[in-house]
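Intended use. Records like the one below are meant for learning the mapping from a protein sequence to its folded structure. Do not use them to infer anything beyond what is encoded.
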Amino acid sequence: MIKFLIYLVVFGGSIGFVLFQIWSFFFTVGGSRGRMSKDKSLLLELAEEWNEKLVPLDHEELSLLSLNAITQKVPKGMYYTEKGILSSVYEEPLISYGYRKYFGRKAILVARTVDSIFEFIQRGANFELRINNHQKGFISEGGKLMNGQGKEVATLQLEKLPGHHDVLIEGQKLATIVDPEYDTITQNSRAFSQIKSCDEEQKNLLTALTLYNNLLRE
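Structure written out for the chain above:
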């Protein structure tokens, strides 16, 4: 009887060790830099399924952007993956995306418009932002986009107004964005309560912070 109990303890311990090693392997591989880099291509493919239907995102269309995101879970692999579309309040598809969430605070979102590609790579609390393959900096939990030199490029002011957040680009207020958690969302719910005219670079940064606010911010 004692030998049998010892056998069970040893056998159970061995199985537990093996399961722990398997779990550790997937935890380490999942969200590794190599894996995340490879997965960006997959997520871009998901976003590009809408290529032929996307409407150019000019200033007028951006001002009509709806808060409502149409999402679909993608049954691929062991990590949560989804694809989705953000459209205007008139149901014109403007931005498509693919998203994957790994273990821990690691995730990737790849979004595209007719003429731009946005990449958000999360490792820890911050998100690295790349637009058209150029690094723009890192978005902090406080909504600040800082470039590689530590300069504040853009800000999503989260603390000022409940349910509404001003967006500043290099200190200039360009828009007030609506918090998707603040009210019931319908297709007619606009992403912006205010938005000013801006150049192409400012529009891309505004679009990036809007994607962060609507899809990624916790």
